[in-house]
Design the sequence.
């Protein structure tokens, strides 16, 4: 799998263009909240063979540009099933941050994913693991080498659980669950640099509860 990270918007969110090496089929993981990703994708030659949009969760910086991308690429969109209540608040989320100009329409969801579901992109098999806490249905997509964790985990930190519909207890459970996956997996977060599960397990100060 080939991975390209495109950082966009006021929140400097990492969006991802991933390609199955064998088939060339591509997917977008998270959208940002501006038209930057759409403009970047339109500039690529040849155009990527985008087959789907995968959302890790429904915060505006990760899903706010969905409607624009759906106009550009008429492909199925996947959302964690438990994320529906938060996703429905996209038209009001800008108000939470004192930024009403960032309110966005919800866009179309074609498929809801549940813990353990598999999504096929060409010859690449993506597994979905539900990791709620940052949001009610935050989840991660992974294959045998890479995992896209949204705002569950960062290099040296973890996602906030004090925003509306967040849950600190669920976040701890999800982090413990995430750390049961193979440690070599490269972690591609919603913000910040790439890390690995092993590195975070050993050095992340927010994961000391897993080392006791």
Sequence:
């Amino acid at each position: 799998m080939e991975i390209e990270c495109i950082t966009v918007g006021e929140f400097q969110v990492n969006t991802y263009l991933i390609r199955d090496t064998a088939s060339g089929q591509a997917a977008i993981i998270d959208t940002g909240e501006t038209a930057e990703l759409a403009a970047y994708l339109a500039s690529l030659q040849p155009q990527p063979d985008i087959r789907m949009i995968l959302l890790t969760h429904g915060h505006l910086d990760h899903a706010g540009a969905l409607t624009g991308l759906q106009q550009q690429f008429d492909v199925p969109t996947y959302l964690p099933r438990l994320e529906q209540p938060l996703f429905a608040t996209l038209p009001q989320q800008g108000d939470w941050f004192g930024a009403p100009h960032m309110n966005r329409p919800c866009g179309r969801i074609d498929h809801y994913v549940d813990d353990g579901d598999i999504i096929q992109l060409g010859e690449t098999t993506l597994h979905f693991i539900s990791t709620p806490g940052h949001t009610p249905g935050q989840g991660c997509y992974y294959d045998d080498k890479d995992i896209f964790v949204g705002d569950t985990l960062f290099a040296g930190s973890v996602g906030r659980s004090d925003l509306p519909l967040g849950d600190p207890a669920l976040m701890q459970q999800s982090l413990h669950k995430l750390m049961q996956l193979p440690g070599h997996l490269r972690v591609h977060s919603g913000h910040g640099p790439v890390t690995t599960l092993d590195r975070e397990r050993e050095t992340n100060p927010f994961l000391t509860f897993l080392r006791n």
